[in-house]
Design a protein that fits this description.
The chain is α/β, with parallel strands linked by helices. It has three domains: 62 residues, Orthogonal Bundle (DNA polymerase, domain 1); 189 residues, Rossmann fold, CATH 3.40.50; 54 residues, Arc Repressor Mutant, subunit A (Orthogonal Bundle). Helix content is 44%, strand content 14%. The chain is globular. The two termini are 32 Å apart.
Length: 361
């Protein structure tokens, strides 16, 4: 990645994501933002005098130490607009301009489901989170959660134990040991997925950062399943963010006498999908069950696809897509698309459904 030093300086300003994105749209690159005058900066909608002060202060920062830490720990920087930036996350309002990534992101993460809930969960909650995560992972879903204790940790473990992928979204710097005692789990996550953050190295896990982090958890996923959530719970914030982002929300019922389930039951009353099994999630997402058969979760598409084949494969998803939309999105000739889809179907990489609808497998 180019201009890592400039990106780190801009990130250190901690200006709100929407305003950073507005600056990037105006100036195109972080170094141009840092060198702009206050008059030029204030011409951008939403930028305040305080933002200008933060940018001026960032010009004098020396990121050499942070760059050394990034390289030593194998942490990569992925900027908004880069090919590696998660496509689904890029769609949301306030998408992070910069991600710190430990591990690897994959195109397979396009099929992702978030599972969240309370830290102080019951044995029931732990078991159900692990089971749902494992069942989804066996269908090829990447499991997204917040890396916290309780339901989050159970969801990550369930996906990993099933041989699947998982992504943890951190509310603190990736060099911060949080939560303590989870080093082994974090190592497993980075080996079979990624831990990501939008905040600079060394950022502590302050309470106000968790609700902001939650928009990334929901933004990465097709939907969010709430396993256990009291009446006041950060998981409910994630559910509301998911609704704002156009994601599906699911709630798992529990003991009607337990305060751990009051928030979840309220979500269900308000219209969230009731989830008991993995099939409820697949149905709620509008995905054909045949498109996500139980499989080895670590399965990956072959690396020897020709350029045209890869182009078509990349525009397909696990939700049915009409052949005309494939032609439009790839820009390829209709005859080329139909012939290639037939070849991909013969190789069991795509499946055709009635009405010339296709899904990737």
């Amino acid at each position: 990645m180019k201009d890592r030093a400039a990106w780190l300086r801009l990130n250190k300003t901690e200006i709100a994501s929407e305003r950073q994105r507005a600056l990037l749209e105006r100036f195109a690159a972080p170094d141009a933002i840092l060198s702009a005058s206050s008059r030029e900066l204030l011409e951008v909608d939403g930028i305040t005098a305080r933002d200008c002060e933060k940018i001026a202060a960032a010009r004098g920062l020396d990121p050499a130490s942070d760059l050394e830490k990034l390289d030593a720990r194998g942490i990569r920087l992925i900027a908004f607009g880069a090919p590696e930036y998660p496509k689904r996350l890029a769609e949301i309002h306030g998408a992070p301009p910069l991600l710190f990534v430990l591990g690897e992101l994959s195109s397979r993460d396009d099929l992702a489901m978030a599972i969240v809930g309370t830290r102080g969960c019951s044995n029931y909650g732990t078991i159900q989170a692990e089971k749902l995560a494992a069942d989804l992972a066996r269908r090829g879903f990447t499991i997204v959660s917040g890396g916290a204790r309780g339901i989050d940790a159970a969801a990550h473990r369930g996906a990993l134990d099933a041989g699947g992928r998982t992504i943890a979204v951190s509310a603190c710097g990736l060099d911060v040991d949080y939560p303590r005692g989870h080093e082994e789990l974090r190592d497993r996550i980075t080996a079979c997925g990624a831990i990501i953050a939008e905040v600079p190295l060394g950022t502590p896990p302050k309470p106000e950062r968790f609700p902001v982090r939650n928009r990334i958890v929901s933004g990465l996923a097709l939907g969010v399943a709430i396993i256990e959530a009291p009446a006041k719970s950060g998981a409910l914030i994630t559910a509301n963010l998911a609704l704002d982002q156009g994601r599906e929300v699911f709630g798992m019922p529990g003991d009607i006498g337990s305060p751990l389930h009051r928030g979840t039951h309220r979500l269900i009353k308000d219209g969230a999908h009731l989830v008991e099994t993995v099939d409820d999630v697949i149905d709620g997402l509008g995905i054909l069950p045949e498109a996500v058969p139980e499989r080895a979760a670590a399965q990956v598409p072959p690396a020897n696809l020709a350029a045209g084949e890869q182009r078509i494969f990349d525009v397909l998803s696990f939700q049915p897509k009409h052949v005309d939309d494939v032609i439009r999105d790839t820009g390829l000739l209709p005859a080329k698309v139909t012939a290639t889809l037939m070849m991909l179907e013969m190789r069991s990489l795509v499946r055709r459904f009635p009405g010339n609808m296709f899904v990737r497998l």
